[in-house]
Amino acid sequence: MRHVDRDDLRATRALGAGGSEIVAIDVAHMGRLQDDDPFDVLWTSSTSGIAGDYADTLGETWSRPALTYGVPNHQMSLEPKGYLVFGSGYSDGVGDAHRGRVMWVVDAITGETVTEKAYLAPPASGTTYDTDEDVAAVSDIAVSSHCLSRYWGEMEEAYVADPAGRLYRWDLATETSNVSSFPHAADSGGTWAKDGQGYALATEAFRFPACQGTGDFSCTINAIGSVGTKGDVFTYRRRWSPTTASTASKIRASCSRRRIGISS
């Protein structure tokens, strides 16, 4: 929960495993629990008028929405505009090709999706431990703040990684006076081109290779390819007891894999 403007307090929630909705509620004037309406629902991703925008992209909504702001002319005395940044979750094997592979920037108050959306294409075949279906926009997105107006946490760039080890930088700095316009001058790999449906085609900044080995105490990192090293992120423990990792079959168990959760 964080402030979107000076008077109201909003809470936004993705439903996670088994759910495919984003819900925003107003908790600024909560009533008693025994009352019929202890708080107000501002919008959901199935709200009439915006449901169609989300229908083709939202899968199981694991990615926690990051609440951030744009401030006209970087002046703390001016009213900020609130945005939510989130990934569209696991595709669950159904729906449009964009389902589960989209990063959204939407209006925090209305849920309108007329702002920004980016498509994360599947990685090259054979270069990840996961199936294409599981390589999705499921991680929490980290949004960096502008130093000139950090009182509002004004957005600068968003960073997101996926289960294939790809790290993206999405430039969300707005134009100085128009906080509804995004030049995208510092997207990773250069400004992302848009397809005919308005999706920015994301280019990774870096891809993390997994450390692979056949021995008990060593592994190597090679170039990512269909034969050999895969894209992934995990930490390799160099020290552990031989009694708990005495065979090559336990190497993977001794590698504490981190499912790319970059929290804001």
What does this protein structure show overall?
- Strands 5-6-7-8-12 form a 5-stranded mixed sheet, with no helix packed on it. A 4-stranded antiparallel sheet has the order 1-2-3-4, with no helix packed on it. Strands 9-10-11-13 form a 4-stranded antiparallel sheet, with no helix packed on it.
- Helices cover about 5% and strands about 25% of the residues.
- It is built from 2 helices and 15 strands.
- By secondary structure, it is mainly β.
- It has helices at about 50-55, 250-255; strands spanning about 1-5, 10-15, 20-25, 40-45, 65-70, 80-85, 100-105, 115-120, 140-145, 155-160, 165-170, 200, 205, 235, 255.
Strand proportion, as a percent range, falls in 25-35%
Distance between the termini: 13 Å
Helix and strand composition category: mainly beta
The low-confidence parts are: 1-9, 235-264
Note the main sheet: 5 strands, mixed
Which term fits the overall shape?
Answer: globular
Query: Which percent range fits the helix content?
Result: under 10%
Count of DSSP H/I helices: 2
- What is the spatial order of strands in the main beta sheet? 5-6-7-8-12
The sequence of SSEs as H and E is: EEEEHEEEEEEEEEEHE
Query: Could you tell me the number of beta strands?
Result: 15
Average pLDDT over all residues: 76
Cα gyration radius (Å) = 21 Å
